[in-house]
């Protein structure tokens, strides 16, 4: 289903279903292969938690060289834990707006990326029409149904057929480690399957949230067959030796990059 791979020192996770898709390059990067130090060790792509811009720039150069993708061909967005999705087709729509949590494109040679440290990174691939998407789904984005919104865009604006779409859910915090409060529980109250991905914690007014499963249920309800949905069950908080984890490291950590590109 998935394998840990390494190229020129950059360690990452890749999925067999996406490897089978001709013309696709993808990687869910781990935290290893860069130059950042201390709590940001070492393939960190975010300056907002205190790492230096010099280190971040060097990490981008390392990634670019490892995958032979020019630096300026990587596109990321200012993630705001919402449900807005940037569409890049013949025109870069709303490109000057600073806040998005997803990207969809049918343009080759553009590596669209999402930065995470517990939130769920999701890749979408339309094998027939050669369209890709990437989503950043924290609990807020999940409560806003960002995954199903992205799939509606593929179907309604690009003419995708659900049976042609493959969805891959990357490493993120698991239900073993993600304890949430009533704010999160209430935010999900309109989800008809809420009880499938929440379990009561031992603490009063606390729940354990299975964030990958919450997104998976959205994806299935959007008409994607379960055979076309892949999730590894890798918890970033449990595997802090491999991934950055905001929850597991008390908020003092970096961000790994997940990217996908049409060759």
Structure description:
The structure is a single chain. Helix content is 22%, strand content 27%. It is of the alpha+beta class. The protein has one domain: 4-Layer Sandwich (CNF1/YfiH-like putative cysteine hydrolases). A 6-stranded mixed β-sheet has the order 1-2-3-15-7-4. A 6-stranded mixed β-sheet has the order 5-6-9-8-10-14. Strands 11-13-12 form a 3-stranded antiparallel β-sheet. Strand 1 and strand 2 form a beta hairpin. The longest helix has 15 residues. The model has no long low-confidence stretch (mean pLDDT 96).
Give keywords:
263 residues; alpha+beta; CNF1/YfiH-like putative cysteine hydrolases; 6-stranded mixed sheet; 7 helices; globular
Rg, rounded, reads 17 Å
Q: Based on the structure given, which CATH architecture is correct? A: 4-Layer Sandwich
The largest beta-sheet arranges its strands as 1-2-3-15-7-4
The CATH class, by name, is Alpha Beta
Oligomer: single chain
Counting structural domains, the number is: 1
CATH-derived topology: CNF1/YfiH-like putative cysteine hydrolases
Beta percentage is: 25-35%
Q: Helix/strand-derived class?
A: alpha+beta
Summarize the structure.
This protein is of the alpha+beta class. It has helices at residues 16-19, 53-67, 139-143, 146-158, 182-187, 194-197, 211-221, and strands spanning 2-7, 10-15, 24-29, 74-75, 85-88, 102-105, 111-116, 120-126, 131-137, 165-169, 179-180, 198-200, 207-209, 229-230, 256-262.
């Amino acid at each position: 289903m998935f394998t840990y791979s390494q190229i020129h020192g950059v360690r990452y996770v890749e999925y067999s279903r996406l490897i089978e898709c001709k013309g696709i390059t993808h990687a869910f990067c781990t935290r290893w292969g860069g130059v950042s130090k201390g709590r940001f060790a070492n393939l960190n792509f975010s300056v907002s938690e205190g790492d230096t811009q010099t280190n971040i720039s060097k990490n981008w150069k390392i990634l670019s060289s490892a995958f032979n993708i020019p630096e300026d061909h990587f596109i990321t967005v200012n993630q705001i834990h919402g449900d807005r999705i940037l569409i890049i087709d013949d025109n870069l729509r709303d490109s000057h707006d600073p806040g998005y949590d997803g990207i969809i494109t049918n343009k080759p040679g553009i590596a669209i990326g999402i930065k995470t440290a517990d939130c769920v990174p999701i890749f979408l691939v339309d094998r027939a029409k050669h369209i890709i998407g990437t989503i950043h789904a924290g609990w807020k984005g999940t409560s806003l149904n960002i995954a199903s919104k992205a799939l509606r865009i593929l179907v309604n604006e690009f003419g995708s057929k659900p049976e042609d779409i493959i969805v891959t859910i990357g490493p993120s915090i698991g239900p073993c480690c993600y304890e949430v409060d009533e704010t999160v529980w209430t935010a999900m109250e309109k989800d008809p399957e809420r009880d499938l991905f929440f379990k009561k914690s031992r603490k009063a007014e606390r729940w354990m949230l299975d964030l990958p499963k919450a997104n998976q249920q959205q994806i299935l309800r959007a008409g994607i067959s379960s055979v076309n949905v892949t999730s590894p069950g890798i918890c970033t908080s449990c595997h802090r030796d491999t991934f950055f984890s905001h929850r597991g490291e008390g908020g003092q950590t970096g961000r790994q990059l997940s990217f996908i590109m049409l060759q």
